[in-house]
Amino acid sequence: MTPNKEDYLKMIYELGGTTKKVTNKQLVTGLKVSAASVSEMVTKLLKEGFVEHIPYHGIHLTDEGLLKASALVRKHRLWEVFLVNHLGYAWNEVHQEAEVLEHVTSIELTRRLDKYLDFPTVCPHGGMIPAEKEILNEKTLPTLVDKQIYDVVKIKRVADDKELLDYLASLEISIGDVYKIMDIGAYEGPILLESDGKQLAISYKAATSIFIDLV
């Protein structure tokens, strides 16, 4: 499978293409490609049995497509663990490197990397790492925008997006941090968090991609 096809399968997965229909427009935005390119690739993936497509409704992964996407996410996240734990990368620096490495990593190298890392189950961004030939079933978690003022929350996972990760790094936010929600701005305004007497404001857009648990 070509790297381009792999990128499409992974993006469909990340956009929720296992439980809902993903639109061509979402793929155009997520992959930063033209509408014509999306239409052409969706047709190819449909013929190869990796997706199902209902005109004017959207696309979702078949079982075979989900298995391929899970294997790709596994490679990506294992490399992120390696880069952070062994090469000193910050968590917001590894996404683009892993994007390159995932496409050139063989099954055998993936097995050896997994063993070398002592079989990690989560990546630096809190995402699950499936075992070999295992379907990735990410735990459904609420996002920061789903909670109320004065809730105390723990950050469990964030979307693997470079712009978001750079933003969170600038605020010195990490997986496992615990915050109390002090205020929620009206009309999708910022969310004010507090920890150890220090306060910080999170944009509504970023908060939709921060997954949490109540403490």
Report on this structure.
The radius of gyration is 18 Å and the shape is globular. It contains eight helices and seven strands. With 215 residues, the protein is of the alpha+beta class. A hairpin with a 2-residue loop joins strand 5 and strand 6. Helix 4 packs across helix 5.
Task: Give short descriptive properties of this protein.
single chain; 215 residues; alpha+beta; Arc Repressor Mutant, subunit A; SH3 type barrels; five-stranded antiparallel β-sheet; 7 strands
Provide a compact summary of the structure.
This protein has a 5-stranded antiparallel beta sheet with strand order 6-5-4-3-7. A two-stranded antiparallel ribbon has the order 1-2.
Sheet with the most strands, sense and barrel status:
5 strands, antiparallel
How confident is the prediction overall: mean pLDDT? 92
CATH class of the domain at 144-214: Mainly Beta
Instruction: Assign an overall shape.
Output: globular
Strand order of the largest sheet: 6-5-4-3-7
Q: What is the CATH topology assignment of the domain at 144-214?
A: SH3 type barrels
Separate helix tally = 8
